[in-house]
Write a structure and sequence with these properties.
Pfam families: EAL, GAPES4, GGDEF. This protein is of the alpha/beta class. The chain contains 23 helices and 19 strands. The strands form 3 sheets. It has an 8-stranded mixed β-barrel with strand order 10-11-13-14-15-16-17-18, surrounded by 4 helices.
Length: about 650
């Protein structure tokens, strides 16, 4: 992958032009200095040769030779000759030397000349170098100084002009850096001053096409997920999603609840009398009543199981609560006015059955169908419960939940169990902390069961504060390398008091600790309270923590939050992972989620990996990592308990 240059285009061109001009000036100065010195040396040699000629003539002329001692010293002194010797084969004939000279002995120039008119005579001359007595003078060097000044001014003007001309290119480069940083939406339209204009216009067009393609991809992904798991007419879950959730729930330890099957009359008669549109409108009206009725149960699933039959899955609800809900649901449906082709007193029937961990899904749906048929045989609107022994009937009301949770929080809060999350190479990505509490009998209750009680008594923020506090304590006292991930309720993140507490707590924590803390939030509550939660998530990211979205796919919602908050990971719900190698519709959903995260740095993780075939197909689909009993079992945070659990596992 190519790397982006750190220096701007304008700075590189300015540096290049400046370097070229400075190098040219340096070359000119060096060449001028050498030429100047060469001219001085040549002038001195020419002048000394003239002096030697005069001395040669004077020696050859007897008349001048007698007066040579009178005029020669004055000539030599005026010529800056420091020392002169006239020698012959017989020895030294004449010697001249200046007493005071400004030049150092080593700096003198020595020349030797032969006298053509006097064979055998030689003259040795030591003279001062040319320009030795000269210093820099503005007057003498005015032309050179002016030339340097003109070059500097021209260079400054040229650099300013170059920056002005390339300002548009800088804008285009800055825009490109923002696009590479993932902020293309901020610069989807370029500045009019960008240059080259063709590149700017082309970039605008490409970004517009990319935005349209992403929107189309998002709509297509939503369409795929909706058609895979949602009923087109009512918007409720379809049979595939209902069976997935029920099958996953039946394999969870400690699961319990009820399945309700609602029949709203004969579909063929309804179609014949009311037509397709009339029948669809009636089904939609009944579906709206059922959707509003299950809002009090956050984990409930409503599905259109057949044309005129709906199924409701109540999780972690006692038989008493399920029967009470069935009674209330029938009263709400009886308020509707059915079409004329249906009997007003005999148009809706409900069958209910109860389940616990380990039961078969097919057998359970047969029980619900038998209970529904029994209600139909009664000949009037009503419901019937399948008679069976309820293994786990924990009828815990708000008072019991409040008493239990108060005792747990007074004892220090819930216990935190650990489960590692690994990448495709088997290396540990992080460790998720799972909250667990113990009931009056010392039995461990999972979060999926006690979260209903938390919501019922309004202790979400209390639970989240204890979990955050314990996680920060583990990070401070740990080895400094472990990354911990904790679950936080969306309702708490939207509360002003909790936001202030979380901000103050994180501000008091070192950055090195916060960088190893991940905040997980469930997908469906996140989308539901997105406007209230988004500022808190951005604050958490700004302080150094990582945002993770879990339980993705538990309900079909839009994935627009991926682009907005850009979580580091998205964890797929375990109902999508269970037997995914045998469920093409689940594989299609996972592909859709991977496609929605593809243009962002968000990576997809799988939760609830239980078998090797599941892990193999997930790797083929392209998930980044996984979590589950196949990759690592849950371990208690207590050192003694963890040691005992590892020993039992071995």
């Amino acid at each position: 992958m190519r790397k982006v240059a750190g220096m701007k285009l304008t700075n590189r061109l300015v540096a290049f032009v400046t370097l070229i001009v400075v190098c040219a000036m340096f070359v000119l100065f060096i060449g001028g200095a050498i030429s100047f010195r060469k001219l001085g040396t040549d002038f001195l040699s020419h002048y000394l040769s003239k002096v030697v000629v005069e001395i040669d003539h004077a020696i050859a002329n007897p008349t001048s030779n007698e007066n040579i001692g009178l005029w020669l010293p004055q000539l030599l002194k005026a010529s800056d000759i420091v020392e002169l010797e006239i020698t012959s084969k017989t020895g030294l004939l004449y010697h001249y030397e200046q007493i005071h000279t400004t030049a150092q002995p080593l700096e003198l120039i020595e020349n030797r000349y032969a006298l053509p008119s006097n064979p055998g005579f030689y003259i040795n001359i030591k003279s001062v170098p040319p320009y030795a007595d000269f210093a820099y003078s503005i007057g003498a060097m005015s032309s050179l100084s002016l030339a340097v000044l003109v070059i500097v001014l021209a260079l400054s003007w040229g650099i300013r002009w170059l920056r002005t001309q390339l300002f548009g290119a800088e804008l285009l480069e800055h825009r490109g850096r923002l696009i590479l940083a993932g902020r293309a939406e901020e610069v989807h339209t370029g500045d009019e001053r960008e240059w080259p204009a063709t590149a700017s216009i082309a970039l605008d067009q490409m970004i517009a096409e990319l935005r349209e393609a992403r929107q189309e991809r998002s709509r297509f992904d939503t369409f795929i997920r909706s058609n895979t798991f949602l009923d087109k007419l009512t918007g409720a879950a379809n049979r595939v999603m209902f069976d997935n959730r029920l099958q996953t729930l039946l394999q969870d330890k400690g699961a319990q609840g009820a399945v309700l099957m609602i029949r709203i009359g004969d579909w063929d008669t309804l179609l014949h009398e009311s037509g397709k549109e009339g029948a669809d409108e009636w089904v939609k009206e009944v579906g709206n009543v059922l959707s509003n009725a299950i809002l009090r149960f956050p984990d409930a699933v409503l599905a259109r199981y057949y044309d005129t039959e709906f199924a409701v899955l109540l999780t972690h609800q006692s038989a008493k609560d399920a029967r009470l809900f069935a009674t209330q649901l029938m009263k709400a449906l009886e308020r509707l006015t059915p079409p004329e082709c249906l009997e007003e007193e005999n148009w809706v029937h409900l069958g209910i059955t109860f389940f616990s961990t380990g039961e078969r899904r097919g057998r359970l749906m047969e029980e619900a169908d038998m209970a529904k048929r029994s209600a139909v045989l009664q000949g009037s609107n009503g419901w019937y419960a399948f008679k069976k022994d309820v293994v786990a009937d924990d009828a815990r009301g708000s008072v019991r939940w409040r008493t239990l949770l108060t005792r747990v929080f007074e004892a220090g809060g819930p216990d935190l169990y650990r489960q590692v999350v690994k990448d495709v190479k088997g290396e540990e990505l992080h460790t998720e902390l799972l909250a667990r509490i113990k009931d009056e009998n010392g039995l461990i209750i999972k979060a999926s069961r006690f979260m209903n009680g938390i919501d019922l008594v309004g202790m979400n923020s209390t639970l989240d504060r204890r979990v955050v506090g314990k996680a920060l304590h583990l990070l401070r006292t740990g080895d400094g390398r472990e990354v911990l991930s904790i679950n936080v309720c969306a309702e708490s993140m939207g509360q002003r008091a909790y936001q202030i507490w979380l901000r103050d707590t994180l501000l008091q924590t070192p950055r090195s600790v916060l960088n190893r803390l991940q905040i997980e939030i469930s997908e469906a509550p996140l989308v539901k309270h997105f406007d209230a939660v988004r500022p808190t998530l951005r604050m958490v990211r700004a302080l150094g923590c990582t945002v993770v979205v879990d339980q993705a796919g538990r309900s079909v919602v839009s994935t627009h939050y991926v682009k907005d908050i850009q979580p580091k990971y998205i964890k797929l719900h375990r109902s999508l992972i269970r037997d995914i190698h045998q469920r093409p519709e689940n594989q299609l959903y996972v592909r859709s989620m991977l496609g929605a995260c593809d243009p962002t740095p968000t990576q997809v993780l799988a939760v609830g990996v239980e078998s090797q075939p599941e892990w193999k197909i997930l790797l083929q689909l392209g998930v980044m990592g996984g979590q589950g009993r196949l990759l690592g079992a849950e371990l208690s945070s207590s050192p003694a308990t963890r040691k005992r659990q590892r020993w039992r596992k071995q």
